């Protein structure tokens, strides 16, 4: 898988990523701030220059009829403002730094313009020179000012902003690196914990505090994953132990009938038994071989159930099926078997042979537990429910789930002439769950009652 393909986790340095992202953001913010400050300062200063000229024009308009032309020029000139007044008789009066060239509207030696109606004041700009003209009763007034000093000041401000921004970026880079290291310390803790767990310390956990933050949720998910992994590891070990025990028990169960077959065969082969003894030995061979065959069939069926047994589903009437199982059981000596049913439909989609196998196993177990004088009853209820109950000694509370484990037999059924190898109930539950149902032991207080439910 190439680095660009989906599914591969990019593991670049998170510290450098965060630092770079913060620095790019700071550069953008400082750039916006510098441009904004520059434009605002330039607009404000230019507006102030224009307003200064307009204010001087207003003052000249107010003083034009009250003072002489020279006095007027002297009063409104200065502070960076140059004044040029061309009187009606062609005289030119000036004051201030004289930054502007003579106005084209007033030519020296030419006829002076006649006073007319006042035109709206408008500031003109030529390079760094701002000027405004105004026709007064005493003549043509021209005010000018030079913005060169303003440009120089703005340039100095730009330099100061650039140096300040550079200093802020350097300081921010150092602080962000230090703060990022502290903020990412929980990730280092997680890394250390994960490596210690991989080394064998399975009990270590992060236990985030508080657990509702981003890192807290991630650490909580990490702990949950470790719990799941540890639980799966424990279940795997337990399953391995069960498989090992199962193999040992199966070998032990197979060894007994095979040993009987071997002993009987050796006695027939090496000895010269009489007719009765030979028939007894041959019957023992047949009996033990049948027992070994049944055990092998049960082991094979358990393997198929674990792998996924194939079912031939079809409509099955549980009431009729229970009656057939009871009729077959009553033809053999032992406890009496009866069938009862509640009102309602009892037809389900199931494998008739497998359901018969489950009910037969439950009935045979109940008859062995109750003895020849006991009673076994099958209750068929609606919704795919069948209960097989007996009046025997029941099952101890500690063994209610243990009886469904493989090759487990209760103490009362340890003798092989009365009980099987301990695979009947596990097979019955496996077949029930293969149908999508279940088999469980009910707590009735007296006897034992197994409930089979089918969907």
Describe the structure.
This protein has 455 residues and is α+β, with helices and mostly antiparallel strands. 53% of the residues lie in helices and 15% in strands. The protein is built from nine helices and twelve strands. The strands form three sheets. Strands 2-1-5-4-3 form a five-stranded antiparallel β-sheet. Strands 7-9-10-12-11 form a five-stranded mixed β-sheet. Strand 3 and strand 4 (129-136) form a beta hairpin. Helix 5 runs antiparallel to helix 6, helix 7 (318-330) packs across helix 8 and helix 8 packs antiparallel against helix 9. The model is unreliable at 99-120 and 412-418 (pLDDT under 50).
Write the layout of secondary structure elements.
Elements: H1 14-63, H2 69-76, E1 81-87, E2 92-95, E3 124-126, E4 129-136, E5 139-146, H3 148-183, H4 185-198, H5 214-270, H6 275-307, E6 314-317, H7 318-330, E7 336-341, E8 347-350, H8 352-370, E9 375-381, E10 385-390, H9 424-434, E11 438-442, E12 448-453
Helix pairs in contact: 1-3, 5-6, 6-9, 7-8, 8-9
Order of helices and strands: HHEEEEEHHHHEHEEHEEHEE
Task: Report the sheet-strand fraction.
Answer: 5-15%
Helix content: 40-55%
Q: Tell me the radius of gyration.
A: 54 Å
- Count of helices? 9
The overall average pLDDT, rounded, is 80
> Largest beta sheet, briefly?
5 strands, antiparallel
Shape: rod-shaped
Instruction: Kindly state the number of beta strands.
Output: 12
How do the strands of the widest beta sheet line up side by side?
Answer: 2-1-5-4-3
Instruction: Extract low-pLDDT stretches.
Output: 99-120, 412-418
C-alpha termini separation: 46 Å
Question: Which structural category do the helix and sheet elements fall into?
Answer: alpha+beta
């Amino acid at each position: 898988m190439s680095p660009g393909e989906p599914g591969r986790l990019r593991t670049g340095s998170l510290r450098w990523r965060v630092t770079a992202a913060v620095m790019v953001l700071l550069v953008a913010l400082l750039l916006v701030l510098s441009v904004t400050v520059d434009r605002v300062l330039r607009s404000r200063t230019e507006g102030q220059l224009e307003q200064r000229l307009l204010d001087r024009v207003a003052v000249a308009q107010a003083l034009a009829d009250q003072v002489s032309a020279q006095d007027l020029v002297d009063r409104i000139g200065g502070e960076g403002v140059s004044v040029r007044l061309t009187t009606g008789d062609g005289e030119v009066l000036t004051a201030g730094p004289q930054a502007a060239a003579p106005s084209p509207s007033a030519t020296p030696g030419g006829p002076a313009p006649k006073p007319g109606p006042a035109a709206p004041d408008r500031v003109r700009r030529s390079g760094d020179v701002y000027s405004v003209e105004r026709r007064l009763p005493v003549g043509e007034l021209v005010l000018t000012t030079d913005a060169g000093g303003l440009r120089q000041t703005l340039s100095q401000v730009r330099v100061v902003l650039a140096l300040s921004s550079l200093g802020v970026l350097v300081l921010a880079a150092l602080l962000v690196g230090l703060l990022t290291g502290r903020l990412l310390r929980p990730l280092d803790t997680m890394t250390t914990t994960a490596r210690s767990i991989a080394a064998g310390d399975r009990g270590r956990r992060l236990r985030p505090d508080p657990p509702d933050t981003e890192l807290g949720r991630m650490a909580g998910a990490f702990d949950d994953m470790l719990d799941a992994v540890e639980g799966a590891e424990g279940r795997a070990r337990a399953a391995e132990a069960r498989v090992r025990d199962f193999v040992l028990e199966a070998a032990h169960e197979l060894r007994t009938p095979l040993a009987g077959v071997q002993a009987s065969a050796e006695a027939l082969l090496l000895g010269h038994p009489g007719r009765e003894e030979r028939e007894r030995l041959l019957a023992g061979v047949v009996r033990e071989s049948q027992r070994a065959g049944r055990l092998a069939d049960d082991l094979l069926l358990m393997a198929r159930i674990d792998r996924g047994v194939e079912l031939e589903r079809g409509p099955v009437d549980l009431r009729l099926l229970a009656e057939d199982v009871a009729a077959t059981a009553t033809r053999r000596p032992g406890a009496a078997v009866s069938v009862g049913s509640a009102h309602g439909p009892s037809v389900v989609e199931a494998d008739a042979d497998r359901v018969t196998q489950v009910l037969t196993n439950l009935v045979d177990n109940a008859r062995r537990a109750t003895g020849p004088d006991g009673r076994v009853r099958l209750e068929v209820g609606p919704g795919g429910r069948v209960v097989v109950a007996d009046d025997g000694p029941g099952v101890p509370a500690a063994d209610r789930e243990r009886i469904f484990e493989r090759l487990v037999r209760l103490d009362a059924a340890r003798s092989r002439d009365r009980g099987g190898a301990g695979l009947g109930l596990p097979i019955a539950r496996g077949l029930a769950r293969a149908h999508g149902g279940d088999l469980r032991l009910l707590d009735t207080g007296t006897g034992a009652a197994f409930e089979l439910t089918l969907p």
